[in-house]
Amino acid sequence: MIGPADDFLVHQTHEPVRFVATSDRRFYDRYFFTGHHCAEDLFFMIGIGAYPNLGVIDAFGSVALGTSQATTRGSRELGLDRMNTSAIGPFHVEVIEGLKRLRVRCDEGAGHAVHFDLEWNAAVPAFEEPPILQRVMGRVMEQATRLIQTGTWQGYISSDGQRIDLDPATSWGARDRSWGVRSIGLEREPKGIHQAKGAGKSRTSLWIWSPMQFADHTIHFSVGEYPDGRREIETVRRMQAFPADGSTPASEEMLGGAEHELRFDPVSRELLDGSSVSFLEPDGTRRHVRLTPLRRAYLRAGTGYGGPDPWRHGKYMGESWIDSVRYDLTDEALTAQIGPTHVLCRMEMDNGQVGYGTFETQVYGAYPRYGFHD
């Protein structure tokens, strides 16, 4: 199955590019973007993923605006050409300059809730997260590489007829780019030893993942913590913005001392105002960042990550498929089913700097420190 990608000097195995190095059906290769206006009016998510061992490529665009969140999604057969990222239903993605500029589009069409034409421009060099490897009862559950980057948007995005033009000065966002083996989104596998033994119950209870974007730098803050305070993940690092003169940016700066003082709604477990995180500067100064939630975008609002909607990433929907769904965000019974959320926050540092970004936090099961006992 030789394809056009085989003409590039990118091979990692003796096989054609169309064949990945593992036969695991969960292998994926995905983009995930968020965007906003540095204000409470708009928050959107865009995802594009290929699943070579399932023969599928799919995409979604989801926009939280006003009292609703609308999502358009599309899927098609992957085919032979791994580099063909066009016509995924109405979606297209183009890498203009690797790790710096990308164009993402969703064509307007009858019945499409969402359409857009956007260009992403990186604000800082990409962070590479530590390699992801998780084994449960001897089985590899996750094995992947992920990079994180903040940037700006220009173009437009439209949701149910309301068009919003995006200017790089006020339209910020973040993306992650990951590939490897992961189960999230795919159709559930038949029951095996992992499910039968309830091995997933040993997961961390508190999860924080946040690219905090400021005008001249970005802080990546990430914590995975068990109920007793032990941590599986603790990462704090800073990347300076690309210099305006085109010179080489400063190297990534590793920080430490991650701490959190969070407030949650006792029922929905949603992040509340008055929350903060802190970390240590290289000179030992503890830097505090106050978090003010501005807007929520629900991760399972028809985006393929689970919830009440039957579509999942990698699910075969035929040769080509397009669909749209809408959610009333004033319906608390509904939002309880489509959480968790990506929370857009205003991030005020104690040195006066103000930034914005996604603060993704989830509390699973018991976490007594914040009042959750089961």
How would you describe this structure in keywords?
mainly beta, 374 residues, AttH-like fold, nine-stranded antiparallel β-sheet, single chain
What does the model show?
- The protein has 374 residues and is mainly β.
- The protein has one domain (28-370): AttH-like fold (Beta Barrel), CATH 2.40.370.10.
- Helices cover 3% and strands 50% of the residues.
- It has two helices and 22 strands.
- The strands form two sheets. Strands 1, 2, 3, 4, 5, 6, 7, 8, 9, 10, 11, 12 and 20 form a 13-stranded antiparallel sheet that branches. It has a nine-stranded antiparallel sheet with strand order 16-15-14-13-22-21-19-18-17, with no helix packed on it.
- A hairpin with a 2-residue loop joins strand 3 (56-65) and strand 4 (68-77).
Counting copies of identical and different chains, the oligomeric state is single chain
Approximately what portion of the residues adopt beta-strand conformation?
over 45%
| Mean pLDDT metric | 93
Assigned CATH architecture: Beta Barrel
CATH topology: AttH-like fold
- Percent range for helical residues? under 10%
CATH class: Mainly Beta
The biggest sheet amounts to:
13 strands, antiparallel
Q: How do the helices and strands line up, and which of them pair or pack?
A:
Elements: E1 27-36, E2 42-51, E3 56-65, E4 68-77, E5 91-97, E6 101-106, E7 114-122, E8 127-128, E9 132-136, E10 139-159, E11 162-166, E12 172-181, H1 193-196, E13 206-213, E14 217-225, E15 231-240, E16 253-254, E17 256-261, E18 275-280, E19 286-298, E20 320-328, H2 332-338, E21 341-349, E22 354-363
Antiparallel strand pairs: 1-2, 1-12, 2-3, 3-4, 4-20, 5-6, 6-7, 7-10, 8-10, 9-10, 10-11, 10-12, 13-14, 13-22, 14-15, 15-16, 17-18, 18-19, 19-21, 21-22
